[in-house]
Design goal:
Elements (H helix, E strand, L loop, with lengths): L1 E3 L5 E7 L2 E15 L3 H12 L4 E4 L15 E3 L4 H5 L7 H11 L6 H22 L19 E3 L3 H15 L3 E3 L2 E9 L2 E9 L2 E12 L19 E2 L8 H8 L4 E2 L4 E11 L2 E4 L1 H8 L4 E3 L13 H8 L7 E6 H12 L5 H10 L7 E4 L2 H8 L3 H17 L22 E13 L2 E2 L6 E3 L5 E7 L16 H22 L1
Parallel strand pairs: 3-4, 3-10, 4-7, 10-21, 11-18
Antiparallel strand pairs: 1-2, 2-3, 5-6, 8-9, 9-10, 12-19, 13-14, 13-18, 15-16, 16-18, 17-18, 20-21
Helix pairs in contact: 1-5, 1-13, 3-4, 4-13, 7-9, 11-12
The chain binds flavin-adenine dinucleotide.
The site of flavin-adenine dinucleotide has 40 residues, from helix 1, strand 8, strand 18 and helix 13.
Length: about 500
């Protein structure tokens, strides 16, 4: 029995050992697995260019990591960056920065694609999806030679609906709650997807299939140390389905041991992190500084996340603490609230006063706060005085914190707050290996025909660590490029 839907969907009812189940069959030019920025930008571009596109999303809601992300977007080489005071930020500079931060573990094929295409693709993102950026001031980041970072207004959750809306208006069919389970291969070519929507089987036939399934941070079985025991703050959807479906048909994987660890999480629940990076950023513009359990400064607070992480790992207990006088704490709180920390959580953590994680210790003096946090109070007082000396001298002789981030001395009296800084991670770097047309490569090194990948599932572009705002940038660059390549290959 067959019922043909107006949209070209075909419902097939089949009888099996006495029971009847309905299998839905969908025909499309391009089938995308995953509705993050990578999948949706690919889908939008393909639909705007006349292709019939379906996006399968396993969750009941769209967006994956892309709807949760912090909104930092690196806009290297774009018209906008030029208009904001950086007239010449060449691709060579980005390549150099990313190789340095990624410790030369970068997949060079995709790194070159990013460097050569991200300026024009980011211009396209800005023209097409119309993001609004907070304050239009490029931020200093130690990872970059030139200032490249802007923040999306409303962060990613504010921006994602614009991307979804443009894609759907262009004709993209988004199927929520529809989990891709395997890739269909016929005659050595990927011709579709076997999926499930609840108990219903869904078969998608397509001329090209795009894996845009994100990372695997939520799947412990795919992680190795030190990621495996790091506090996770990513979405439950990042389970590496794309890596596993591709690998099941012979795709090569690379850099699976790497993920992006940041040195600025708090353990908001056992095994779970909340990022406090926005609190830190604000505290560096006050008088906040970092110490270890001995009450000693050990690092330039404005160093790259990567460098701070390396120092943190060598400290007792593998953690650091941020030390905040009253005005610095007020700004810090303003920052962490933008990352979802609620008044109720804050109240509870302050009431615990360092007795359990997350440590939000405080007291009416520096020494009282140090005691509550379990930090050596005598050393901490000496550290504060030394730090204030550097502020007066306009030079951090110990660690070279840039003087523009040493704006005022820390208060010597009054209440103090001390907050833990633990490693957190969400984003993985391990990839399905692709060629310079984002075609997934098989074990022989030849492309698996009909199969492409974009976004975090091919994150080896970054190396063993990603730079600020580069994940979003890569999701869009690789998403848009994948559409161009799939469309181009269909014309051949
Ligand atoms: C909290 C947080 C903050 C971040 N902040 C930043 C930031 O400020 N700047 C930055 O550059 N990067 C940031 N990142 C990283 C960035 O968000 C991601 O790397 C990027 O959004 C990945 O996009 P994607 O489209 O590849 O994957 P995702 O956005 O994760 O989308 C993948 C989608 O695929 C779906 N899917 C997976 N398997 C299947 C299946 N079998 N069938 C159907 N659907 C499936 C998932 O449900 C998901 O919706 C952050 C990440 C997190 C978690």
């Amino acid at each position: 029995m067959q019922v043909r839907w107006k949209q070209g969907l075909v419902l097939v009812a089949a009888a099996f050992s006495g029971s009847v189940f309905a299998a839905q069959v969908i025909n499309a030019d391009i089938a995308v697995i995953g509705s993050g920025f990578a999948g949706m930008s690919a889908a939008a571009d393909a639909a705007m260019n006349g292709k019939k596109v379906v996006v399968l999303e396993k969750q009941a809601f769209p967006g994956g990591a892309s709807i949760l992300c912090g909104g930092q977007y690196a806009i290297q080489g774009t018209k906008l960056q030029k208009s904001l005071g950086v007239p010449n930020d060449p691709p060579q500079s980005l390549v150099k920065d990313l190789i340095l931060n990624g410790h030369n573990k970068n997949d060079l094929t995709t790194l070159i694609l990013q460097a050569e295409n991200s300026p024009r693709v980011t211009d396209w993102v800005i023209d097409t999806f119309k993001p609004v950026f907070i304050d239009n001031k490029l931020k200093y980041r130690a990872e970059f030679e030139f200032d490249r970072s802007l923040y999306l207004k409303g962060y990613c959750s504010g921006f994602y609906p614009k991307v979804q809306s443009v894609a759907e208006k262009a004709g993209v069919k988004l199927l929520l709650g529809t989990k891709a389970e395997s890739l269909v291969v016929k005659g050595g070519r990927v011709t579709g997807i076997k999926a499930k929507k609840g108990n219903q089987a869904v078969t998608v036939n397509a001329k090209a299939v795009l894996l845009a399934t994100g990372g695997y941070g939520a799947n412990k079985a795919m992680l190795v140390e030190p990621l495996k025991s790091a506090l996770y703050y990513g979405p439950a959807s990042s389970t590496g389905d794309g890596h596993r479906m591709a690998s099941a048909i012979g795709a090569k994987l690379e850099n699976m041991e790497y993920g992006k660890r940041y040195p600025n999480g708090i353990e908001s629940a056992p095994g779970v992190a909340t990022s406090i990076i926005q609190g830190n950023y604000r505290a560096w513009l006050e008088s906040g500084f970092l110490v270890n359990k001995d009450g000693k400064r050990v690092v330039n607070e404005k160093a790259s996340n990567n460098n701070i992480m390396a120092v943190l790992e060598k400290q007792p207990g593998k953690l650091l603490y941020i030390v905040l006088d009253e005005p610095s704490f007020a700004k810090f709180v303003e920052g962490i609230k933008t990352q979802g920390v609620t008044d109720a959580q804050l109240k509870e953590w302050l009431a615990n006063n360092g007795s359990k994680a997350p440590i939000f210790a405080h007291g009416d003096s520096l020494e009282a706060a140090a005691k509550a946090a379990g930090i050596n109070p005598t050393n901490l007082r000496a550290t504060l005085e030394r730090y204030n000396g550097f502020v007066r001298a306009k030079k951090d002789e110990d660690f070279g914190r840039p003087v523009k981030f040493m704006v005022r001395e820390a208060k010597t009296t009054g209440a103090y707050y001390i907050v833990e800084q633990k490693p957190r991670f969400a984003t993985t770097m391990g990839s399905v290996v692709v060629d310079d047309h984002l075609r997934v490569l098989g074990a022989s090194g030849k492309p698996i025909r009909g199969l492409y990948a974009a976004g975090e599932v091919i994150n080896a572009m970054h190396g063993d660590d990603s730079s600020p705002g580069m994940n979003i940038s890569w999701a869009f660059t690789s998403g848009k490029l994948s559409s161009e390549f799939m469309r181009g290959d269909m014309r051949k």
